[in-house]
Amino acid sequence: MNRGMPANKPNDPKVPVIDAVDVHKRFKELEVLRGINLKVFPQEVVVLIGPSGSGKTTFLRCVNHLETIDAGHILVHGEMVGYRLVNGRLIEDREKEIARRRTRVGMVFQRFNLFPHLTALENVMEAPLHVRHRPRPEVEARAIELLARVGLEDKCGSYPAMLSGGQQQRVAIARALAMEPEAMLFDEPTSALDPELVGEVLGVMRQLAQEGMTMLVVSHEMTFVRDVAHRVVFMDQGSIVEEGTADDIFSHPKHDRTKAFLGKFLS
Fold first, then answer.
1. 3 state SS of 241
2. Distance from C-alpha of 84 to C-alpha of 94, rounded to nearest angstrom
3. Which residues does 261 contact at the CB level (< 8 Å), separation at least 6?
4. 3-state helix, strand, coil in the chain (%, to 5)
5. Could you report the per-residue pLDDT of 41-92, keeping only the tens digit for each?
6. Among candidates 80, 49, 46, which has minimal Cα distance to 65?
7. Would the pTM of this model clear 0.70, i.e. be above it?
8. Which of 212, 197, 187 has the alpha carbon at shortest distance from 67?
9. 171 Cβ contact partners less than 8 Å away, ≥ 6 residues apart
């Protein structure tokens, strides 16, 4: 686990895209993550469920080094994001190196975080142009293609304020895909949407799953979770309580905490 370690092949089904080992995170006196161990393999959709405050979002942010960790490590294809190992100790990496490695994992937030002064097309083009330094004609053609992929080919010239919440979130997904990530992180991407707009975002996510995108998702949309997840992970109080297939968790939960949580949705 050093900076010289070659990245593992993205298409090797036996090698995890994301590998979290004994991850701990504390906010002052509050221990938010208590030794999380989780692997996400290529083309797998893993969904984190659990009550608010269980650490799901914090863990997702740690994967992309939007939050630091206090112990353990997280690898993306064999490379640590945000850290390097020096004499057995984790040292936070240089910002340029963090930014480079962060591009390997796209993230879609609860709030859309679009640039309000840029059109939908410009929002999607921004990172490939200014982070990857790709040629503008290539980037523009790809951005138009991605907006069409999420059903917004007619909204290229629209500013975020002219779009519905569901449309803004689909632009955010296209923006993340524009960096050609090896995995996508979704942090409750429908929680800020009106109920009638949820389906259009979940539809794009279903399509990505069918196309084989590796995905780590935090969601309370239990029908979506049951239909799409290859593996469901139930978290509570900063720990993984149990994990298994969607059928394992929804039909045969083993722990009382899991049963109590799901009972609120399935009763």
1. strand
2. 9
3. 49, 50, 51, 234, 236
4. 35, 25, 35
5. 999 999 999 999 999 999 999 999 999 999 898 999 888 888 877 877 778 8
6. 80
7. yes
8. 187
9. 112, 114, 120, 123, 124, 147, 150, 152, 155, 160, 163
